[in-house]
Amino acid sequence: MGIKNKKAYRRFRIKMRIRKTINGTAERPRMSVFRSNKQIYVQLIDDDSGKTLFSASSTDESIGDDKINKTGQAEKVGKLIADQATKAGIETVVFDRNGYLYHGRVKSLAEAARKGGLKF
Structure pTM? Predict the structure, then answer.
């Protein structure tokens, strides 16, 4: 019995390895990134209560430029989530790359969030 999708299985194993050690609280939520083929999504999650505090994505109206590439969209999403968090008084987060490699869109989102004032 073989594995049908090795790439998804590999990402799942990396994700579980990361999630063993990372946990978000209300003071320091987990910043989880999801990357699809066309869009990028980010959530600030309080794992103690199991609730999403804030979310931002490249489908938001403020980011909806068709002429910008996907890494540029990820930068805008990072700035947007940083603005939402700092307005609510959240300064530090725990970054959860969700099994994705730290380069490209995930890296540009994280660096934009750091420039926006989040510490992780």
Answer: 0.89
